[in-house]
Amino acid sequence: MARLPRACPVDIPQHVIQRGNNRQVCFASEQDFVAYAHWLLEYSVKYHVEIHAWVMMTNHVHLLCTPRTANAVSEMMQAVGRNYVRYFNFSYKRSGTLWEGRFKSCLVQEEGYLLQLYRYIELNPVRAGMVEQPSDYVWSSYQINALGKESALCTPHPLYLALGSDPASRQAGYRDLFKYHVENQLLADIRLATNKGMALGNGRFEVEVASLTGRRMTANKVGRPVGWRKKSEE
């Protein structure tokens, strides 16, 4: 059966994960990170995708982005993936696939959830034990969003801009978000929504997205349906 095309409503933020096949390394040197960032910038501009936050780990990538045209995220990820695999295979004298099938993604409610995704993404290296502070990791957007480092790749989301009236106050407000780690329940919700291609938000947002896309945006309940035993005994 053919796979359904992705739900990619214009102007709704998405959390995207692209993993290496079998969790294999897909960034083995500093030049690899540079190459991936180069194509991500090129194709985010070409396909009109605003990138708000990112982290490039050794075997996967997280993005928080907003498409401004239809199907833009898929087109961007396909173009980046093709070019990077060609580069990686040539550089390391290998052949075959690099990525774990299609990328995973979820639609994100702005209110109450979007800034949490910023934190979730940029705290990845800390949760992985690679660094003690997110500022210590170069290949994420934390130094841009929290410390004011310049980057053509980063487009601030309006909720980020609302953190302060000027760059210094916004960066200070943003750093305050990182005083605490992401709560376990929120971690679980983010991972479930992304892996299942659902919506991350409250019930109203899930209903709105389901109506907009024509797809179920909540997980099926685990276990047998209510009343199954009674029906089986009739």
From TrEMBL:
Annotated signal sequence is none
Spell out the InterPro entries in the cross-references. Answer: Transposase_17 (IPR002686), Transposase_17_sf (IPR036515)
Q: Which GO terms describe its biological process?
A: DNA transposition
Instruction: Please report the stretch or stretches of sequence annotated as the Transposase IS200-like domain.
Output: 9-124
On whether Cell membrane is a keyword of this UniProt record, the answer is no
One MF term from GO for this chain? Answer: DNA binding
Q: Which UniProt keywords apply?
A: Plasmid
Instruction: Tell me the Pfam families matching this sequence.
Output: Y1_Tnp
Query: What SUPFAM superfamilies does the database record attribute to this sequence?
Result: Transposase IS200-like
Q: Which SMART domains match?
A: Y1_Tnp
Does the record's keyword annotation contain Plastid? no
* Protein name, entry field: Transposase
